[in-house]
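During the reporting period the student researcher (J.K.) took over the structure-prediction task from the postdoctoral fellow and processed the backlog of single-chain submissions. One of the processed entries is reproduced below for the supervisory committee.
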Amino acid sequence: MKKWKQNLSLLIFLFTLSQFSFGQKSTSVQGKISDGKLPVEFVDVILKTANDSTKVANYTVTDASGNFSLDNVLSGDYQLQFKLIGFKTITQKIKVADSPLLIGTITLQNDTNLLNAVVVNSQKKQIQKTAEGFVFNAVSNISQSGGTATDMLKSIPTIAVDADGGITLRGKSPMILINGKNSAITNMDQIASSSIESIEVISNPTAKYDANAESGIINIKLKKNNQSGINGAVVLGSGFGAKGRLNSSVLLNQKSEKWNFGLAYDNRFAGRTKKIKGERINNFIDDEHFINQNRNDERTEGLQNLKFNIDFSPNERNSFSFEALGNLENQDNDETLHTQVNTNTNQFFSDNIRHSLELERSKVGELSFSYDRKFADDRKSLTASITSSFNKHRENTNIDTFNYDQYNAQIGDAFLQRTHNYEHENISNAIVNFAIPVSEKSILETGYKGTFRFFTSDFESADMNNGEYVVNPLASNSFKFNEQINAVYGMLNSFIGDKENPKWKYNLGLRAENVSNTGATKNNSDRFSNDYYKLFPSASLQLNLRTDEFVKIGYSKRINRRDLDELNPFIDITDALNPHGGNPYLQPEIIHIGEMSYNKEWSKYSFSTNAFYRNATNTIKQYAELQDNGVIFLQPRNIGSTITYGLETIFSLKPIGFYDANISITAFQQNINASNLAQDIVNNAFSWYGKIINNFVPWKGGKLQIIGNYNSALATPQGKRIPIYNVDMGFQQKIGKGNARLGLVITDMFNTLESGFKNNTLLFSNNRTSKSDTRALMVTFAYTFKSDFKEKLLENQFSTE
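J.K. obtained the following structure tokens:
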């Protein structure tokens, strides 16, 4: 409690500090930049005094919408200059008075004499705030080169990733989308970090988004180059942890006036090790009382992605896009598990060594077609898309178990088993979104999304008997699951006040979802169906205190539907003393969420904080139950209701030219009512996690990044997960004329990252720790060729969907 009060006091102090503005009374200069068709991003906007054109009074760059705002401008006469290599520089005289100056839309003209020797020096911000959260640009992350999407997510503010790859926002698993769509790629290790353009965190989704997003949405946007002409880039990487690692990627692109063709390939090959130690005491079982386990995993993994896209724009109003993605993943795991069991008097009971060789192969194919229609009124838009994603996963395991007596002598022959698990999944999406102005100040958004999922799983376990493998029907199962989600939404966005600088903004939304799903196991022994229709309202109100400062409140109703792993009832017996399985009878969680946020920006600092309250019924949590034979069975359960409230804060600073940083802290309290289960359930717990991202420019062309993460102990229904912490470092240096980079990455520098949990219940206590070879070193080399825009290609500054 004392630590909670100290943390709360610090957050209140930061919040209070942010209320004060610095500097003299001033105004702002605002406008928008276009090329005559589309907004232009990264334009240098330079404000110079009229009597001395060498003196820069203020500076900024345009955002993704082409907008810019020069703040804290004193009254007087100035020259306003707009510069972007590849376009003609525009200069105009302006006079600034006491009120904000709105200069409207400036249209840039192409400078054909410069197009063949362009180097773009403007860079995207590391974090760009949005109305619903923020966008983290992959270009800013150089400490996870050669990693996966899971590794990159570890470096993003407000996201917590444990040592086993579990991803949470505010203590719960978020919905993860690929290019804004549901995908059969559910394992984030299937996505190489080199293929990621940006990651969008939507912590406060409106009715426009899927309701199945209790803690928010993470949208991973993959690269899509649209630079003119023929261009490309190559990246090569190599390194080692306990074992060697290799990665590479190639990007090729050709764009003409109406057509754009892109081809991308990336791969990643690595070897990893993991050691797991478990200790358990079964309080009321005399024979299998003390259980000690030591497990060693030797793993090799390979990942390959191939992506192809065609874009066609017959005119400035219409554009069509087709995209195909192929993914191959293989993972071989050689595991040895040593289990020793003693009685309550600490006498020998059993000893065995179980060895398993697991071979996994996955194939994912994804096809996407989209259409985008623009109108004369840029407030009006129409988008439509159809996607289909296929996943085939095969897992074969050979197992041998040797039993030993108390003198370490082998008892009998080895017990041989083999298992297979074959999964087939298809997820398709049909999406239509339409926005139309209904008044000068209001826009109505409406749309439809259909999600269709088909899944089959065949799990078979066979035991060696008289020289032949015989299928064990008690340990084998099959599972089929079909789901259809049809959703429509309507949302009104409006404002009160001046169009260019509204005092109030608000939106009101309603989403209707009709869900129908069915599931069945072999011979229909476990069969269920669940059809329901639910409404999900959302609302928000934003008060703009200044152009760079606002307060926002919001409410939304959401749902946590069960995922396939939680529903699939077959039991994994890889560890015979700790089996786990799904629960087809789970009910979805219903959640009511209230939020209040504050955002403030200065020239060198920005601060945002978000207080949230979440009330969930039918909360789904993993629950461990001790069986009569000493086995602990882990299964998801509806444990009752949970109230969560907390504070999420992001602070960015650039105090000096060669250094900038981002600090984020999320803290929350959970109160659990689990009266439907055992009495030893954890009733309340406080958790927090934070990270700091430090960026340095030590010299020209060099970048240094150091990221520190800390996740406090996290409450589970019967105990807690242990704290985790680590430090990653990345360095990058330009070579030659800037069309090449040399990078060095060290992950988990101090080798501190490990996971585990401690459970203490009336029936048993259980401690478990897991340590992988997370400390690794990678060296990467990147090179662009035949590219007009070298910086954009090399630094991942691609356009997104």
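The committee noted the following: The longest strand covers residues 410-437.
J.K. will present the remaining backlog at the next meeting.
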